[in-house]
Automatic annotation (TrEMBL):
InterPro entries: Endonuclease-V. GO terms for cellular component: cytoplasm. It catalyses: Endonucleolytic cleavage at apurinic or apyrimidinic sites to products with a 5'-phosphate. This is Endonuclease V. The lineage of its organism: Archaea, Methanobacteriati, Methanobacteriota, Stenosarchaea group, Methanomicrobia. Keywords: Cytoplasm, Endonuclease, Hydrolase, Nuclease. GO terms for molecular function: deoxyribonuclease V activity; RNA endonuclease activity producing 5'-phosphomonoesters, hydrolytic mechanism; single-stranded RNA binding. It is found in: Cytoplasm.
Length: 209
DNA sequence: GCGACAG
DNA sequence: ATCTTGTCGC
């Protein structure tokens, strides 16, 4: 299935103007997956809305197969959005995947939506380590560049930016940079992460823990 | 054969 | 991801 998805991935820009950008993140609580999506105005990063979907974990954690663990919940959360974003930022890799089908690319194909994958560690690919603040180094996988390592803050490890779907190496770096507001993680993912944590706390309270 | 391995 | 201990800095 991943090979089939991987063949459908487009690595050129498939968007006009971005007015809304989304960020997706999942957290876990007991046997549940809590998936959260936030939508922000671009490039002001002004909050627009958030949705959540909570479901039972249906697939184990296996590196390389994230889509099957966090995909369903993320898509259900996406369907609940009143304002569909022009581009979605995902907390996972995109085309730096053995089958060209990391979660960011996979969900982009399924939703037919431009996506960018952001991770804290490299899964596939090689790159020089950027040292200076704001320095970016190309990330190669196979023979092509598929993303970047970006040293956002001088005191923290660089983030990994990868092309998801309907985006290019050039645009995924430009867009990610415009989403940075003084923190290591770009706003869509930082806010989505915070929202997921709040939902978990809320759930724990109402179910007695 | 052994180690590494997105969240 | 989650959990835990400890340190640094605004």
């Amino acid at each position: 299935m991943q090979e089939e998805i991987g063949r459908q991935v487009v690595t050129t820009d498939g968007f006009e103007n971005i007015k809304l950008i989304g960020g997706a993140d999942c957290t876990y609580f007991k046997d549940l997956v809590i998936c959260c999506i936030v939508v922000l105005k671009y490039p002001t990063m002004e909050f627009v809305e958030r949705t959540v979907h909570i479901g039972k974990i249906s697939f184990p954690y296996i590196s390389g197969f994230f889509s099957f663990r966090e995909g369903e919940g993320t898509i259900r959360a996406y369907q609940k959005l009143s304002h569909k974003p022009d581009l979605l930022m995902i907390n996972a890799c995109g085309t730096t995947h053995p089958a060209n089908a990391g979660f960011a690319s996979h969900i982009g194909v399924v939703l037919d939506k431009p996506t960018i994958g952001i991770t804290k560690r490299i899964f596939c690919g090689r790159a020089k380590i950027p040292q200076k603040g704001n320095e970016a180094q190309p990330l190669y996988h196979g023979r092509k560049q598929k993303g970047w390592l970006l040293k956002v803050l001088p005191e923290t490890k660089p983030i990994v930016i990868t092309v998801g779907h309907l985006t290019s190496t050039r645009s995924c770096l430009d867009i990610t940079k415009k989403c940075l507001k003084g923190n290591k993680m770009p706003e869509p993912l930082r806010i989505a992460h915070r929202c997921a944590g709040e939902e978990k706390k809320k759930w724990g309270k109402s179910s007695g823990t």
